[in-house]
């Protein structure tokens, strides 16, 4: 709900309020963002003080207003040069390098929709939009701020449009989508950082005076710093306390700045990264920032996650697979790498089909001269030596097994050893006169050029028409040697953003032309895992690291801002191919099943015992797939060194127990407590039967195998589960077995199913 009363603006969602007002001098002031307040409440004008504080040697606005210091105000969008010395939302140059602007309130509109249609398209169904126009006091430069409220999801979408009506050019250097000024700095910042194979690790730090910046300069969202940030009160945890989540809907260089001023104010800004950015606005032209979503919670971090998960699924994702249950896949990469034949692939697919898997994915190496990673990229023509039946023939044989068929592509890249490069060397991103730097022996195609994206659309359309049900879209290097030869670019600073716009345009065309294909995005694992990519592909490869211990941390950080249905997780071999850690195939499954499940190991090398276990896993996953892909995810209270996750649908709840280390002789019972359990219901709790392999127990095997291992089956009230919790059966901790003994070990798991009775 959006209202305007006098000089006040009110934006309300189900559980939050956002308030602004126009100051006597015309500046748009931020008043409040937090829990819901009825707009007609008495005393709203007391939330913020008047113009009665003089800030020492600061610059006041003018002689008539000696107590108006922009540096001491909470503003909605700030520019430099008139006294606000904090980080600016907009920096734009005119008249040879001048940057001073003074935007004040001009007009507003309230729209019963979301009328700005830019890629990636975010639905405005069920939403209202407030559009506020600011105008510089001297120049015909306009800033249009947009706020779209999604009441049910508790999300507000923010963006800015800069419009140049001067007769000369306006050169943009920094354009922010969101600026949020908060009245105090008593927050902690949560960011999601890492590198290849350890993406989105959660870090939490206390704010202090000065500037903190989270950003990417890699050209993509980046595995180093995701665009998701959260401000949380020091006492806030998963289920209690205030927090604000913010995430840009963008796939390129981004920056999130958090500044604590000398006067105890906190400013948050999200923007395209100013690094290397410039955009020329000629007379009459406009520039629209990427959109940023934000949500407020008074009841902990999980509430924020749920808001973002629902918003992304309901309004960002466009695929017809959004709410469909996704297939269990087998990917051949870690099973064969480049060394495969059609015969070997069909043997792998046949074994996977017998285990109940539903989709066979052919990874890198099926095209052109591609026998290793030094050649062939760009030549999307099937290699008939490896696949004599071609893609269409192989697809038909896979379909005969009762499985769907898909493959891997990396369309944004090119190898020097390729027919495409030989034909179009000018399409490679490189600075004239300089030798470009490679990444993984490959180079970038210039997607800022429409002739490149047109070629890719035509070429990919041909291979996508070969009986393809699924496409894994990869991008295995970062950007370097920044240069565009696009005739549309006004300056080289437009390269990064024009590349991303070209990518969006290409993906939009392909997903529209092939609506029945399930797309999965990937970029060296999670190097471009962001909300904008989910507008074209409903799931993404979470990380190249599939070790279950690492995945617990990676999936935890990812789930803070992205839905379960977007996480593609694979059960892979032991020892793990990324860190050589050994782990049980049952424990690997229990972690990987939280999201979209796949397998990526050589099934042909497994024992009949292991294949039987995988068959049971796939059957279990299918039975509970809708909950595991589309349920509500929460963190439960930890107990005795264990982490607990839950995912819940209307029909059931599944709970994961994970322990990093198995301690000896602790004498303690681990407790399972579910604070959100329904106190008026009774639950039946069963444990997924987990196969124990002989090698898991070594010489203890005879002692263990002589004991009848109990299958857990308990009945308990929701009131007990949410208050005291229940004691789980004992773990093996160094002394013998009893019928109820549980065997977890290091990096061990159990998975519980709860149903109301």
Describe the structure.
The chain has three domains: 2-316, Beta-galactosidase, Chain A, domain 5 (Distorted Sandwich), CATH 2.70.98; 329-543, Alpha-Beta Barrel (TIM Barrel), CATH 3.20.20; 634-756, no CATH class. Helices cover 18% and strands 30% of the residues. Strands 6, 7, 8, 9, 11, 12, 14, 15, 19 and 20 form a ten-stranded antiparallel sheet that branches. Strands 21-22-23-26-27-28-29-30 form an eight-stranded parallel barrel, surrounded by five helices. The mean pLDDT is 95.
Strand and helix layout:
Blueprint: E1 2-5, E2 8-12, E3 16-22, E4 28-35, E5 90-93, E6 103-111, E7 128-136, E8 141-150, E9 155-164, E10 170-182, E11 188-193, E12 201-206, E13 210-215, E14 225-232, E15 243-249, E16 254-260, E17 266-272, E18 279-281, E19 286-288, E20 291-297, H1 301-316, E21 329-331, H2 333-336, H3 342-354, E22 359-362, H4 390-400, E23 404-409, E24 413-414, H5 419-423, E25 443-444, H6 450-464, E26 470-473, H7 495-513, E27 518-521, E28 539-541, H8 548-559, E29 567-572, H9 585-592, E30 596-600, H10 608-630, E31 632-639, E32 642-648, E33 653-659, E34 671-672, E35 682-687, H11 694-697, H12 701-705, E36 713-717, H13 718-722, E37 726-727, E38 748-756
Parallel strand pairs: 21-22, 21-30, 22-23, 23-26, 26-27, 27-28, 28-29, 29-30
Antiparallel strand pairs: 1-2, 2-3, 3-4, 5-10, 6-7, 7-8, 8-9, 9-19, 9-20, 10-17, 10-18, 11-12, 11-14, 13-16, 14-15, 15-20, 16-17, 24-25, 31-32, 32-33, 33-38, 34-37, 35-36, 35-38
Helix pairs in contact: 6-7
């Amino acid at each position: 709900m959006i209202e305007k009363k006098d000089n006040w603006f009110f934006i309300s969602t189900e559980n939050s309020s956002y308030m602004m007002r126009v100051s006597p001098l015309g500046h748009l002031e931020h008043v409040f963002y937090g829990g819901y307040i009825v707009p007609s409440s008495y005393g709203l004008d007391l939330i913020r003080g008047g113009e009665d504080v003089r800030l020492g040697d600061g610059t006041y606005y003018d002689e008539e207003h000696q107590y108006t210091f922009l540096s001491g105000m909470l503003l909605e969008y700030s520019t430099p040069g008139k006294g606000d010395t904090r980080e600016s939302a907009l920096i734009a140059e005119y008249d040879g390098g001048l940057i001073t602007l003074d935007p004040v309130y001009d007009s507003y509109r309230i729209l019963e929709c979301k009328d700005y249609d830019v890629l990636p398209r975010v639905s405005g169904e069920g939403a209202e939009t407030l559009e506020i126009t600011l105008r510089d006091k001297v120049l015909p430069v306009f800033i249009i701020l947009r706020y779209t409220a999604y009441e049910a999801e508790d999300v507000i979408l923010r963006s800015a449009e800069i419009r140049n009506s001067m007769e000369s050019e306006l050169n943009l250097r920094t354009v922010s989508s969101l600026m949020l000024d908060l009245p105090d700095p008593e927050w902690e910042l949560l960011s999601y950082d890492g590198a290849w194979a350890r993406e989105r690790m959660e870090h939490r730090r206390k704010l202090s005076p000065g500037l903190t910046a989270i950003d990417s300069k890699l050209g993509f969202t980046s595995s180093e710093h995701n665009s998701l940030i959260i401000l949380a009160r020091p006492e806030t945890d998963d289920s209690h306390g205030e927090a604000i989540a913010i995430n840009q809907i963008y796939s390129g260089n981004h920056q999130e700045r958090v500044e604590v001023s000398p006067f105890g104010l906190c400013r948050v800004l999200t923007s395209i990264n100013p690094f290397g950015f410039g955009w020329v606005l000629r007379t009459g032209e406009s520039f629209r920032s990427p959109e940023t979503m934000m949500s407020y919670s008074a009841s902990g971090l999980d509430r924020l996650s749920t808001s973002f998960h629902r918003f992304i699924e309901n309004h960002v994702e466009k695929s017809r697979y959004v709410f469909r249950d996704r297939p269990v896949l087998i990917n051949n990469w870690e099973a064969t790498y480049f060394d495969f034949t059609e015969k070997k692939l069909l043997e792998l697919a046949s074994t996977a089909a017998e285990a109940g898997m539903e989709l066979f994915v052919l990874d890198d190496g099926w095209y052109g001269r591609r026998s290793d990673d030094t050649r062939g990229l760009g030549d999307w023509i099937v290699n008939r030596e490896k696949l004599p039946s071609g893609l269409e023939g192989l697809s038909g044989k896979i379909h005969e097994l009762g499985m769907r068929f898909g493959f891997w592509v990396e369309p944004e890249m090119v190898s020097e050893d390729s027919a495409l490069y030989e034909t179009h060397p000018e399409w490679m991103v490189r600075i004239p006169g300089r030798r470009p730097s490679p990444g993984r022996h490959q180079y970038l195609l210039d997607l800022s050029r429409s002739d490149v994206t047109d070629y890719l659309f035509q070429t990919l359309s041909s291979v996508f028409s070969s009986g393809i049900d699924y496409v894994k879209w990869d991008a295995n290097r970062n950007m370097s040697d920044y240069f565009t030869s696009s005739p549309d670019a006004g300056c080289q600073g437009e390269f990064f953003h024009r590349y991303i716009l070209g990518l969006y345009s290409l993906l939009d065309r392909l997903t529209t032309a092939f609506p029945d294909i399930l797309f999965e995005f990937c970029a060296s694992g999670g190097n471009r895992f962001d909300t904008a990519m989910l507008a074209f592909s409903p799931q993404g490869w979470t990380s190249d690291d599939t070790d279950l211990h690492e995945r617990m941390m990676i999936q935890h950080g990812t789930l803070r801002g992205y839905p379960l249905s977007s996480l593609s997780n694979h059960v892979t071999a032991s020892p793990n191919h990324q860190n050589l850690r050994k782990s049980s195939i049952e424990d690997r499954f229990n972690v990987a099943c939280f999201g979209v499940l796949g397998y990526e190991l050589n099934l042909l090398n497994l024992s009949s015992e292991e294949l039987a276990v995988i068959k049971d896993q796939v059957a279990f996953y299918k039975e509970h797939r809708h909950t595991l892909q589309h349920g509500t995810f929460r963190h439960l209270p930890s107990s005795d060194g264990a982490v607990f996750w839950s995912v819940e649908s209307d029909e059931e709840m599944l709970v994961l127990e994970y322990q990093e280390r198995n301690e000896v002789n602790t004498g303690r019972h681990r407790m399972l407590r579910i604070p959100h359990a329904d106190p008026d219901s009774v639950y039946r709790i069963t444990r997924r039967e987990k196969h124990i392999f002989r090698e898991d127990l070594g010489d203890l095997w005879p002692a263990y195998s002589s004991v009848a291992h109990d299958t857990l089956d308990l009945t308990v009230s929701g009131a007990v589960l949410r208050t005291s919790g229940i004691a789980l059966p004992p773990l093996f901790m160094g002394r013998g077995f009893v019928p109820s003994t549980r065997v977890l070990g290091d990096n061990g798991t159990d998975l519980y199913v709860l149903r109301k009775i």
